[in-house]
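input
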Amino acid sequence: MNSKDNIIGIINEEIDRWFDDDESSLLDKYYEKKFGIVKEPPQKEIDVNPNDISKGELIGFLDKSWETKLDNPIPVYKNPISLDSFDHSARGVLLENGDFFLGKSSEAMHLNILQLLVKLGYLGSNVPLTGYEQKKPKEYVAVGRIGRSDIFKESGVFDEFPEYYQVMFDNANKKHKYKFRNFSVKK
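output
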């Protein structure tokens, strides 16, 4: 069997697995390795109770902070109800529809959360994940918790705050009990 046949065999195998949810495909393994995204926590003990709805809906885990491999994966929650168990200065991503995704630890980076959201289909694959401070995507805004408060602000990389971000914040303020506030210099 030559290498061309091997490659075709691998492609066919991956196509077969594409629709099989029980087994990770090559693409899943690539995303997990490259972006630090894991579907399930490893066997190590992690402070996660999927039935604890006060944290919101558990959507996945990050096993990298930037490119650094973490010993303990970071849970990411959608629309947390309470912030009691989240780190001070925790980072998150607010979508234009008001959905909010927050990493439990302050080690969760915006980029890693964005990559998880793309992988899970919350964001399209054409949405810019880097350089968002210049491109200012209309689909999301990167936010951070102010200390241990119930207030979130735009990421510190922003030097200006477009009106459509304010609309996102206003929508989120109607949907969540914690507050999103603009602290940037320019509007």
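quick obs: The first strand starts at residue 37 and ends at 38.
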